[in-house]
Each structure stands twice: as structure tokens, then as C-alpha cells.
Amino acid sequence: MVQLGKENLFPIGIGTWHMGDSPSKRNQEIEALRYGLENGIEVIDTAEMYGEGNSENLIGEAIKDIKREDIYLISKFYPFHAQEPELERSLENSLERLGTDYLDLYLLHWKSSTPLEETIESLEKYVKDGRIRNWGVSNFDTADVEGMWKLKGGENCTANQVLYNMASRGIEYDLLPAQKEKSLPTIAYSPIAQGDTRGDNIAGNKVLQKIAEQHNATIFQIMLAWTIRHHDVLAIPQSSNKKHIQENIDAQSIKLSEEELQLIEKEFPAPKRKKPLDII
């Protein structure tokens, strides 16, 4: 389980980038979301940017008959909506599309030209009035989160959502250690490198194929199990296929041995120096 705020959550959720954009896939995507929620997944991650609201609309339809308290909803707002009155308008639009009165977590999608203390002040106000339960950030590097912690209310940040997978381990050099020290959880997007050309190198890796065979699993399940190997990372792979959703759920029970972790380390070594934050 992963703790976000006061919630202990299943460590694998569903990312929804590109979902809701194709009418021909709509029913399949809704079925996949409902299947995930009915079989152990709690977290659904979206953003106003995804299809300019298409993803949120899709989710709203998918969850309308599911108990709201069984879902942990995350959405994100554009950096150019990070000040009033645009921020409140973005929040209200997201709530309307999702068909809910509140978000469990509301994230600044990436750094904004608006002073962060202004944005935090608004987010804290939304927490107090109940429209969001927690707020966080996305695509913040080490200096960004350290600067945030110095601001009034900055210590209330609930999570930082960043790119993290076997082929993209840059955050392990200093960002993850800094967040561990402050008990700030990480939400890993693209944990199986979907949408990332580096994922092609992983999918064909012979060592991973052998490890997957030993666990009677797919390479993607091994990648997920690796991403959540610590208890402060929540992974949000995107999937609109019920079979893949079930495989993602099953990945939580895969425990990689120390020997297997060392083999993976040899194939995809941890960074030995600071690298720019990866973003896709």
C-alpha cells in the first residue's frame, strides 16, 4: 500500500492520458475503468489537459454508478491556470466533467510563471471548503520541491507526479532521496515507458524476459513490480484494456528477489550524476 495524505491506497492506479479521445473506443475504455475499480484499483489519474476535458468526461461517465468514497480521483490543472480566477474556474470545470463534488488530489501539472505561494494559497482555500482533499505538484525537480517546502503551506504538498521507470531513473539521484526524507510520496507516470521510445529497449531485453518467465509474468508486469518495489511510489500505467488492467493489478503481488534486482540494475543502472528531469 502507498500512503497519500491520510489514505492507504493500492499502489497501482490507472492513468488516462489519451483516453476519451476516440468515440470508437469509448465503451471499451469505460469498461476498463469500471473493471479496474471493481477489482482493487482505487486511483484514477487525469488532467484538464487530456483531450481538453475528454478524459475527465469519460471518467465521469465510468464512475457515475460507483460509490465515490471507493475512488481516489486525481486531476491536474494547466500552469497558465495557476492563479485566480482561472484556477477556480479550472477546478469547477473538472468537477463538473467528473460529476463529483470534490477531488482527492489536485496537482499543478508543471511549473508555472505564477508565484507558487499564490497557487498554494488558493489550493489551501479549496482544501478548507472541501472541493479538494489534498493538493500536490507534477514534474517538479529537486530544487523545485525544496523551494516549495520553504513557502507558507508548502509542507502540505501531498505528492509529486513525475516520469519514472527502468529506463528513466534520473530522479533516484537526488529527487527521490529528498522526498523520502520529507515523506513526500511519488506518483510515477509512464511506469512501463508507454509513449516513450526508451520503452522499446526494455520490452526486448533478454534479462527481463527471463525474469518474467520465472514469475510467469509479462515484462510489463516486472516493470510495474520494480517501480513499486518501495512503499512510497504509486504507479499509474495507462490502459484501456480489461486484460491489461488485470495484469497491472496482479503485478502488485510480484516480489522481485535481491538477485533479480541486481540483474535489473546491471541492465538499467541507477544514475551516478544529476540529470535533468525527464518529461514526456
Provide structural commentary.
- InterPro entries: AKR, NAD(P)_OxRdtase_dom_sf, NADP_OxRdtase_dom.
- Residues 11-266 form the NADP-dependent oxidoreductase domain.
- This is Aldehyde reductase.
- This protein has helices spanning 26-38, 54-63, 86-98, 116-129, 142-149, 175-181, 198-203, 206-214, 219-227, 242-251, 258-267; strands at residues 2-4, 7-9, 14-15, 43-45, 72-77, 105-108, 135-138, 160-163, 186-189, 233-236.
- With 280 residues, it is of the alpha/beta class.
- The chain has one domain (2-267): Alpha-Beta Barrel (TIM Barrel).
- The strands form two sheets. The chain has an eight-stranded parallel β-sheet with strand order 3-4-5-6-7-8-9-10. Strands 1-2 form a two-stranded antiparallel sheet.
- Strand 8, helix 6 (175-181) and strand 9 (186-189) form a beta-alpha-beta unit.
- Helix 1 (26-38) crosses helix 2 (54-63), helix 2 crosses helix 3 (86-98) and helix 9 packs across helix 10 (242-251).
Question: What low-confidence regions span 5 or more consecutive residues with pLDDT below 50?
Answer: none
User: What is the CATH fold-level name?
Assistant: TIM Barrel
Strand residue content: 5-15%
The helicity comes to 25-40%
CATH architecture: Alpha-Beta Barrel
Question: Structurally, how many domains make up the residues?
Answer: 1
Structural class: alpha/beta
Total number of strands: 10
How many separate helices?
11
Shape: globular
For the record, give the distance between the C-alpha atoms at the N and C termini, rounded to a whole number: 27 Å
- Kindly provide the name of the CATH class: Alpha Beta
Provide the CATH superfamily: NADP-dependent oxidoreductase domain
Strand order of the largest sheet: 3-4-5-6-7-8-9-10
What's the story with the biggest beta sheet?
8 strands, parallel
Order of helices and strands: EEEHEHEHEHEHEHEHHHEHH
- Report mean pLDDT, rounded to a whole number: 95
Evaluate the radius of gyration. Answer: 18 Å
